[in-house]
Amino acid sequence: MARKFIPDDASPFYPPRARWYSFIFYLGNLLRRRLAMDRITLPRRMKLGATVAGFWVPGLAVWLRGPRLWGHAAMAGTALLAFIFVVGLGYPAANVAFGLLISLHTTGFVYYCNPLMADKPFQRRLAFTFLVLLAIGLLLYLPARHLIQAHLVTPLRMNGRVIVVQRAFHARHVQCGDWVAYTLDPDNVGENYHNGAVYLHGGIGLAPVLALAGQQVFFFTNSFSVNGLWHTNLPHMPTTGELTVPENHWFIWPNLGISGHGNVGEARITSALMGLATVNKTNMIGTPLHQWFWRKQILP
Fold it and tell me: Is residue 17 assigned to a domain?
């Protein structure tokens, strides 16, 4: 006769089924054995998980070691320094905040590892602190800074001002009149023009796009036109001639600081700048933001 009631509890004779996330623990244990980390013994007041977390999260090591008041102060200081670094990108205050953030992170982690190094001589503790500083800087902060400036935002110093440029803006969305930051064409920069009379240095340009690919530019004495729209001539622009912008290029008149020695001549300067005016889209760095937090950005 069938039983009227079957308990839902698992039978003690059968082990529970593996969960879907069990492979994570399996891989973790395998990696730990491969790296011989299972042989590492830490003092009682240190735990492996807390040590790893304190290494990667700034200020957390102080909070884990205690007292909690110091931990809260370390976490608040970390947040404040990170905020100053982001808001002040490109300014000296941001560099100071970045250095203090690394120092605070290193000091907190060394403080957490105090039970491990308490009975060691001073020279060994000093060497340990230096190695922690080197590891945190190379493994965490330098890659994070590169990630921010290479893929998110980049600060550029132009005419004594800092312009924050967003890197995520795609070149296909750029229209006439949009400002773009770009690298000067490496095929032209650094070459001597007119037997050495004009020399162009490499660098980064920031200027508006005057014409897109396929558009025609006509130059006149005091003005130039792009597809029938007239504009006032920019410094050292040609006074005659025409140009059809090649495919995947923009026409951007370079805004460069010019210094001269001797009688170079306007025609030679104009010819040299025309070599930089046709910009490949692949040279684009990004577009300047209109405002960075509460700071309105003034373009040159």
Answer: no
